[in-house]
Design goal:
By secondary structure, the protein is α/β, with parallel strands linked by helices. Helices cover 49% and strands 15% of the residues. The chain has 15 helices and eight strands. It has an eight-stranded parallel barrel, surrounded by six helices.
């Protein structure tokens, strides 16, 4: 009989099931700051303590995410606010928000990104500037997430990205902050594997969460790919004769996930500890997909038991 997990992931080889389940159960997902009501919905589908990143969009102030952070904590999940440096208006705004997030929602981790605003709204031109301020450690933040770009960045040279990551890791270490890295999503698994391999050589102790575009419509994925700067993989595959719509229609997150699981199984030095799901199709749909992936562990165990 076909299990629900096998039905949801028909193209994944059974031998990868447990590795895939581990990557998802140790992973995280992202939701919008103004969707507090969905916290209990997704909590019913995910392991207790799953990290849920709450984004910091241009149209919302930092404090607008507080209700969602509190709702996630109350639902038994781990709230992780985004801090988009260029969207922070002042040091006082940043300090007040972090202090309230720690006190009201038990926040201990933040994801620190630069933000894509053309000009900084306040004193922070990039994530490193927030770290230099020193307030994260002062306000009881224990862990900071940093962004990684398997396809590079549209406006920043790769060498500059590498230097910036090294600087931020050094700044975090000086403040006794643990650090982890979350990659931007990509439609080219080979690019992700190559990037993770390079990171394992440069920063072998750095935990990496590989970003995946969650289940969504082709139109939504194309829109977000262009907005997030990952259209390089779309262009590369179009050059091979695959149209963008065919690419997105046939690129399920499960295919990306299987590629990462194979990489981890083949490399003892792999520092990928989980995946991070961008919920472009909605956070409830993404959480349901994650639940199906986690169920592959039970399917794999049942298959082994039946074979004995």
């Amino acid at each position: 009989m076909t299990s629900a997990a096998e039905a949801a992931f028909p193209s994944l080889p059974a031998e990868l099931g447990e590795g895939i389940a581990d990557l998802v159960s140790c992973g995280s997902l992202e939701m919008s700051a103004d969707r507090a009501a969905e916290a209990r919905v997704i909590a019913a589908m995910l392991p207790v303590g799953t990290r849920v990143h709450v984004n910091h969009l241009p149209r919302l102030a930092l404090e607008d995410s507080l209700a969602t952070l509190v709702a996630l904590r109350e639902a038994g999940l781990e709230p992780v606010p985004h801090l988009a440096a260029r969207r922070i208006g002042s040091r006082a705004e940043a300090r007040s928000f972090i202090d309230r997030a720690v006190r009201e929602a038990g926040v201990a981790k933040v994801l620190l990104v630069g933000g894509d605003d053309p000009q900084p709204r306040g004193p922070y031109p990039d994530g490193a500037a927030v770290l230099r301020h020193g307030m994260l450690g002062e306000l009881a933040i224990r862990e900071v997430g940093l962004p990684g770009y398997p396809e590079g960045h549209a406006r920043i040279a790769r060498a500059a990205l590498e230097r910036a990551l090294e600087d931020k890791l050094a700044l975090a270490a000086k403040q006794n902050l643990s650090a982890y890295l979350v990659t931007q999503f990509s439609f080219a698994p080979a690019r992700i594997v190559e990037y993770c391999g390079a990171l394992a050589r440069r920063a072998p102790a750095l935990p990496v969460y590989v970003g995946l575009a969650g289940p969504s419509s082709p139109a939504a994925l194309l829109r977000f790919a262009q907005r997030c700067g990952v259209s390089a993989s779309l262009r590369a595959l179009r050059d091979q004769g695959m149209t963008a719509v065919r690419l997105v229609t046939h690129t399920d997150p499960g295919e990306q996930l299987a590629a990462i699981a194979r990489y981890c199984a083949a490399h003892a030095a792999c520092n990928v500890v989980g995946v991070h799901l961008f919920s472009f199709g909605g956070v409830a749909q993404t959480a349901a997909w994650m639940r199906g992936a986690i169920a592959l562990r039970r399917s794999g165990a049942a298959a082994r038991a039946a074979a004995k």
